[in-house]
Amino acid sequence: MQEFIEIEPKQYLEFDAEENKFAHAQLSLKNLTQQDVTFKIKTTTPTLFQVKPSLGLINPNQTQIIEISTSQPIKSDAKFDPKFQVNASLIDFQDQDLNQFWKNRDQSTIQSQQIKSRIKHNVQQDVQSHQQVPDSKILESTINNSQQQDSKMFKSVIESKTEKDDQIKLYKDQYEKLQQEYQDFRKKIELETQQAQSRKEKNNMSFFQLLLAVVIALIAGYLIGN
User: Fold this and answer.
1) H or E segment to which residue 5 belongs
2) Domain spans of the chain?
3) How do residues 38-95 score in pLDDT, each as one tens digit?
4) Domain 5-128 fold
5) β-strands 12-16, 111-120 pairing
6) Distance between CA 54 and CA 52 in Å, rounded?
7) Which terminus has fewer CB within 10 Å in the chain: N or C?
8) Beta pairing partners, 68
9) What stretch of H or E contains 91?
């Protein structure tokens, strides 16, 4: 998609946040073409912002500054993540009704870009706030942080060693269980082999006894006949 306008800032719109004051920011839209370009700006929280102008026309190679302010004060520590969508498109003639134009416009002919917003940090206030903290408090905070880090590191080493010991014990238990199962299986095989051998020997003995009885019967029959 061809870019009709250059948008500044491109990613984040930063708002100055001061106590009991409305937050304010600016958008810059520059027409990159040799034709008139119309723009329209939307936001995810329209009740929080006043965008002036939110709809308009930019002549060739000209720049339009958009003033954006909040409708209520914003605290510097408040959750603040609204988004703005900047749409731009070429327009045939200046007298065209822009509201009607954007209602009927084909999406494929629109350059659309989303810009996130955030609260700008006041570096000077941060420095003053840091200077107001007594050195003893800073030192105490540093020591506490260091102790917490050492404690976490020591705890991490202990937990790591404990986990390894538990894992080794688990493997050892599994090995011993497999050994016991192997011994039981071996004994079972030996017992079944012995039983099979005993059955075979018994069958052989029965056959021999039967054969002997037949021979005796034949001999007895022969003797009686004679």
Assistant:
1) strand 5-8
2) 5-128, 133-197
3) 999 999 999 999 999 999 999 999 999 999 999 988 876 778 889 999 999 999 887 8
4) Immunoglobulin-like (2.60.40)
5) parallel
6) 5
7) C
8) 25, 51
9) none
